């Protein structure tokens, strides 16, 4: 296990009211009591203050604001020792329907944060996605590594790729103390109902049929969001500056298998779903080789039983209807308009 090279005391977590950012804030709160967290979040449709309300107080503070607001960053960044940047427009289908907010938040927002990190000499960790590498063929034994060339397919993934490149340039040209992580598909509690797994679970709970894109053979490499959070903490505290680390838990599964697992666990026929229009430009397969993070920094995932994690996730959505119900009707209306 590599030594901690950086000891944060007072960090900003952007997007800390979203699915993965809020998981990281809880992780820090529960495991690193000497660290103060300032959550900066614009509370878009995807942000929910309820995700962190229970831990707001002396150690977790909330600032309602936009990462594109340079004046606000001038007010809040000084005095912090790191920025961990999760805030993003994160959904591929939305980026196809309307790319503009993706350019604004994912590219301009990252630029503003990098400029603030430069001005106030604050360490910066950039949370990114495996989608920057494009896709792999279904029968290709290869996986993505830190050396795979960038080849993004969607407006979402191309804006995330752009933001990664800005980080690399700001590190090399201006000496920003930065690290980057690219993670695979996360699942777990608190994920917005627009995403694949929560959409299908909540459809079944609402008496609607799940919806499968294309032929259902597309493969995603699933990781529990708790494991993503420990990966980011490991890279923030032990990672080498200027380096990229891939985070993944060897969780490759095709969509139809995941959907049939959900239907079976929820007591439905494995065929009780609708085939719907495919996503334009739909990436076929993602697969992460996380050897660098495991061998250099000693990280490993702990939620490696996908079936168990899926069952716990189904139980969470079943027990927490009040959390997702307010977003469900509008999300499905949007999908219906898109023929999905
Ligand atoms: P999410 O959509 O659930 O949450 C995004 C959060 O960012 C929300 O709280 C939202 O209010 C906030 N936000 C959006 N625009 C903002 C702005 N301009 N200023 C301030 N806050 C803003 O997203 P997520 O799934 O939790 O993803 C978080 C990060 O992790 C993203 O950078 C995403 O690219 C990356 N990532 C996600 C996955 C995944 O499977 N979901 C996998 C790898 C990487
Ligand atoms: O790989 C990491 C990425 O994973 C993150 O960067 C993104 O922020 C995150 O949204 C996720 O992107 P995907 O596009 O892979 O996730 P999504 O949940 O939208 O879809 C997962 C797969 O399921 C994909 O192949 C499309 C398919 N799908 C999705 C929905 C919403 C369906 O078949 N039916 C659906 O209803």
TrEMBL record:
This is dTDP-glucose 4,6-dehydratase. Gene3D superfamilies: NAD(P)-binding Rossmann-like Domain, UDP-galactose 4-epimerase, domain 1. The gene is rfbB. GO terms for biological process: nucleotide-sugar metabolic process. It comes from the Bacteria. Belongs to the NAD(P)-dependent epimerase/dehydratase family. dTDP-glucose dehydratase subfamily. Pfam families: GDP_Man_Dehyd. Keywords: Lyase, NAD. Its EC number is 4.2.1.46. Its cofactor is NAD(+). It catalyses: dTDP-alpha-D-glucose = dTDP-4-dehydro-6-deoxy-alpha-D-glucose + H2O. The keyword Lyase applies. GO terms for molecular function: dTDP-glucose 4,6-dehydratase activity. It is an enzyme of class 4 (lyase). Residues 12-312 form the NAD(P)-binding domain.
């Amino acid at each position: 296990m590599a030594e901690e090279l950086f000891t944060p005391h007072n960090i900003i977590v952007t997007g800390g009211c979203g699915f993965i950012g809020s998981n990281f804030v809880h992780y820090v709160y529960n495991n690193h009591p000497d660290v103060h967290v300032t959550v900066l979040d614009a509370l878009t449709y995807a942000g929910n203050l309820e995700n962190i309300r229970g831990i707001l107080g002396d150690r977790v503070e909330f600032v309602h604001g936009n990462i594109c607001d340079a004046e606000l960053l001038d007010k809040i960044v000084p005095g912090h020792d790191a920025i961990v940047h999760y805030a993003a427009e994160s959904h591929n289908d939305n980026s196809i329907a309307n790319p503009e907010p993706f350019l604004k938040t994912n590219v301009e927002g990252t630029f503003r944060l990098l400029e603030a990190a430069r001005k106030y000499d604050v360490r910066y960790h950039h949370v990114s996605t495996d989608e920057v590498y494009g896709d792999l063929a279904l029968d290709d034994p290869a996986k993505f590594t830190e050396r795979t060339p960038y080849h993004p397919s969607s407006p979402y993934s191309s804006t995330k790729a752009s933001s990664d490149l800005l980080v690399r340039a700001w590190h090399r040209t201006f000496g920003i103390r930065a690290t980057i992580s690219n993670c695979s598909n996360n699942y777990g509690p608190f994920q917005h109902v627009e995403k694949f797994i929560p959409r299908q679970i909540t459809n079944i709970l609402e008496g609607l049929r799940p919806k499968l894109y294309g032929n259902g053979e597309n493969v995603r490499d699933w990781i529990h969001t708790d494991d993503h959070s420990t990966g980011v903490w490991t890279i923030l505290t032990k990672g080498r500056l200027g380096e990229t680390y891939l985070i993944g838990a060897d969780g490759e599964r095709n969509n139809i298998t995941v959907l049939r697992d959900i239907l079976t666990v929820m007591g439905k026929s494995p065929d009780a779903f609708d085939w719907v229009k495919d996503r334009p430009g739909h990436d076929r397969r993602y697969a992460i080789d996380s050897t660098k993070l495991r061998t250099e920094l000693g990280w490993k995932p702990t939620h490696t039983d996908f079936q168990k994690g899926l069952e716990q996730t189904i139980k969470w959505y079943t027990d927490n209807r009040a959390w997702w119900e307010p977003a469900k009707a509008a999300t499905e209306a949007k999908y219906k308009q898109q023929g999905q």
